[in-house]
User: Which sequence fits this backbone?
């Protein structure tokens, strides 16, 4: 009789001990899941997107595209960027934080082509694949590059300037950080296109801090010192806004044509009212989306369609800005 009672008692006590052990393990795991370096408690792959900024319309659109892809592919994703588009050292710190945080892929846009190279190489040496979007870095081991052909985009702006003005051109270039690859490629493309025409009298260039205020001051200086300038190339979103405001305040919108890069509500308004002649519009949403999609492929050992993926560029002017396809492009749902 005692043996019949003892046997189920042992089973019950064993079950209680197993239950307590399970609760202890669960509590430990939950506690560790909050640790700085444990990112994948839910078994999702963890990736980091490092942009140049988190305030401009362009980079907000990149972030929206990246978050959409992360949701679709069931990835944990962090989007980070420095406060200033000049601060490549802050980007390097973010790269190293991603390494310490055990990111499984990094999507990156370089502020400084050479200044970011060492940190990117550290990530690759740690076994983390790197996908470059928008602006290149001096590293041959990058897994994939996803960006506009910036040289051809610059040529597009230059060719439109030639088409819209059949006479002599005196050109002002309003560019940003001289160490940023995409800005230099755009400038080269624009200058090559207009120089080939034989109609350029002079080209004056100013490199600004990548802020609207710096671009405004740089454009004011150019147009004040060289009042014969009739064509301006403004080579990113903030350069475009600063140049547009300068032309407006000087009252020279009828005499100076601005060919600007990227778009937001303000620059589209300037296109409508005449301060800006044309916009070279990229597809930042696609850059973010494709960057994360490519990271998913690399993490899971899937083949890439190419190690170089181009994104579209469109010229928008007052004559086509009301077309339905253009409206969808310049007034994105994410803005």
Assistant:
């Amino acid at each position: 009789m005692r043996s019949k009672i003892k046997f189920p008692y042992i089973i019950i006590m064993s079950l209680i001990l197993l239950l307590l052990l399970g609760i202890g393990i669960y509590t430990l795991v939950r506690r560790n899941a909050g640790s700085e370096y444990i990112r994948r408690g839910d078994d999702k792959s963890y990736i980091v997107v490092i942009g140049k900024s988190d305030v401009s319309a362009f980079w907000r659109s990149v972030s929206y595209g990246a978050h959409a892809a992360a949701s679709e592919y069931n990835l944990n994703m962090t989007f980070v960027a420095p406060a200033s588009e000049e601060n490549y050292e802050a980007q390097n710190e973010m790269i190293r934080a991603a390494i310490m945080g055990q990111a499984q892929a990094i999507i990156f846009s370089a502020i400084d082509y050479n200044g970011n190279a060492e940190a990117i190489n550290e990530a690759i040496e740690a076994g983390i694949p790197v996908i470059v979007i928008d602006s290149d870095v001096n590293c041959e081991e990058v897994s994939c590059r996803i960006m506009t052909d910036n040289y051809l985009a610059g040529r597009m702006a230059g060719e439109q300037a030639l088409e819209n003005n059949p006479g002599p051109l005196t050109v002002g270039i309003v560019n940003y950080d001289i160490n940023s690859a995409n800005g230099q490629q755009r400038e080269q493309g624009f200058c090559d296109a207009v120089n080939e025409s034989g109609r350029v009298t002079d080209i004056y260039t100013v490199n600004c801090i990548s802020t609207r205020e710096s671009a405004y001051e740089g454009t004011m200086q150019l147009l004040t010192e060289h009042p014969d300038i009739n064509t301006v190339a403004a080579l990113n979103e903030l350069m475009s806004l600063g140049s547009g405001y300068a032309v407006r305040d000087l009252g020279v919108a009828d005499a100076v044509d601005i060919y600007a890069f990227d778009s937001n509500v303000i620059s589209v308004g300037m296109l409508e009212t005449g301060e800006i002649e044309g916009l070279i519009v990229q597809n930042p949403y696609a850059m973010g989306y494709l960057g994360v999609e490519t990271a998913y492929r690399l993490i899971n050992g899937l083949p890439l369609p190419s190690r170089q993926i181009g994104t579209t560029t469109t010229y928008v002017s007052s004559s086509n800005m009301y077309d339905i396809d253009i409206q969808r492009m310049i007034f994105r749902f994410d803005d």
Residues 124 and 141 are 7 Å apart (CA to CA). The longest strand covers residues 200-207. Residues 1-41 have pLDDT under 50 and may be disordered.
